[in-house]
Amino acid sequence: MTLPEQYSTADEGTFGKFTAETRWGVILQNAIDDINNSMTNDKIDIDIGKLIEKDLIGFKKELVDNAPLRVFTPKEIETCNIPLSFNQFINEYQGPALTWLKAPWLFSEIYFYRRINAIFKMNSLGISKFWFEQFDIFNRLKRSTFKLSLHGVVELAHRYLNLKKVLLSDKNIDTESKQILFKEFIEISLWGNATDLSLLTNATYEDIKSLQGEKARQDSESKILINDTVLAWNKLLENPSNNRIDIVLDNSGFELYADFMLSLFLIQSNLAKKIVFHAKDIPYMVSDVMMKDFTILIDDLKDRKFFDVPVGSKDDIALNTVSDDISEYVKEGIFEFKTDSFWTTELPYNYIDPSETKYHGAQIHKELLNSDLVIFKGDLNYRKLTADRKWEKTTPFKTALCELATNGITLLSLRTCKADVQVGLKPGVDEELTKLWEKDHPGQGNWWVSSGKWAIICYSNGQK
């Protein structure tokens, strides 16, 4: 099979081109501004911060000048633990030299974040522990966004508390009701803080199965263009109470909180025995989860200076219950956190294969074979699953997965659509949504797929 080419930052009328021309510059300027807002009182840290700021300004000029993408130096590779796949891609790229505005979007975007990380590491190595180890250029935005989600955080905590009482008090809950709840928690994880949480108001199965609950579910599902939730449900029923589920995470803050909610439900409803969370190893894509973000989230849930609710109030009790339950599962080994540099390479996920021994692909494959279901969260993971290629939008999901479709890994992709790539649609859907989006966004009808207004839930059983 001849594979389609990948989306490029040079493709006219695409979200990828807009990202390269506009969004990356804004992200860099925000990073430059945050350097000054994050200085310690230590003179060495201040001096290093100024060097980092200078290099970030120079990096921004590269973008503005549409400079060629350079290889990482041997010192950068050693100091910053940069996988060799980046240099290999640049050296072997066929065609004209790669520049910021003429490169595969997937590669150049991930390379962009690696370059930012290298600026911090190279300037502070052996001099400033603060900038080298402790500082996350995106942490301020991550936490401020989570703090602004107070209403949703508290609301979902109350609904979790009510649901927990039901689950723990009745071990004979019928399968139909449990399946409905599974769908709701999957959708909460899918949409993050954009989700409608109304279905869990009382967390009684009578309410959930009512006509009003059915209508709310239908409204919520109307924006999900592909919904394979039932296939994932059937998979979990094959080995209830003994399933291991892996979650390859996307955003920190509320989305991670929603992922924890899904995970708590899976354990307490005896649909899973263990959850393994996979995080990033560097500050990445602005808001992606790093290992430190797990602890930060749990601490923020307990901190009444962070979430301003009265101590001893119902809100306080609900938030503490969630954080205590997460902490207890971590202590018991039921929740486990892992990271690997593979997740921050540009490599598509067909590299998760037993024959790929160069860039941790075989290692990741072996790890995920232990899982009964691997949930890939978010848009970037979807782009990597499909290699960010210009597939026809009716291309079957398994076709776009290439080798990953048949190498034994059972997976579920939860994605709100925020990029140009899309597969698995029924004939006519793309044309219909393009026309719909064009009405309010003249000349950008095809940007419906990067608007974040629609979503997909796609399943693959990993078998031929």
From TrEMBL:
Metal-dependent phosphatase that shows phosphatase activity against several substrates, including fructose-1-phosphate and fructose-6-phosphate. Its preference for fructose-1-phosphate, a strong glycating agent that causes DNA damage rather than a canonical yeast metabolite, suggests a damage-control function in hexose phosphate metabolism. Its cofactor is Mn(2+); Ni(2+). It comes from Henningerozyma blattae (strain ATCC 34711 / CBS 6284 / DSM 70876 / NBRC 10599 / NRRL Y-10934 / UCD 77-7) (Yeast). GO terms for biological process: DNA damage response. Belongs to the damage-control phosphatase family. Sugar phosphate phosphatase III subfamily. This is Sugar phosphate phosphatase. The gene is TBLA0G01830. Subfamily III proteins have a conserved RTxK motif about 40-50 residues from the C-terminus; the threonine may be replaced by serine or cysteine. GO terms for molecular function: fructose 6-phosphate aldolase activity; fructose-1-phosphatase activity; metal ion binding. The lineage of its organism: Eukaryota, Fungi, Dikarya, Ascomycota, Saccharomycotina. GO terms for cellular component: nucleus. It catalyses: beta-D-fructose 6-phosphate = dihydroxyacetone + D-glyceraldehyde 3-phosphate; beta-D-fructose 1-phosphate + H2O = D-fructose + phosphate. It holds the Pfam family ARMT1-like_dom. Its EC number is 3.1.3.-. Gene3D superfamilies: 1.20.930.60, Uncharacterised protein PF01937, DUF89, domain 3. Keywords: Hydrolase, Manganese, Metal-binding. Residues 19-432 form the Damage-control phosphatase ARMT1-like metal-binding domain. It comes from the Eukaryota. The keyword Glycoprotein does not apply.
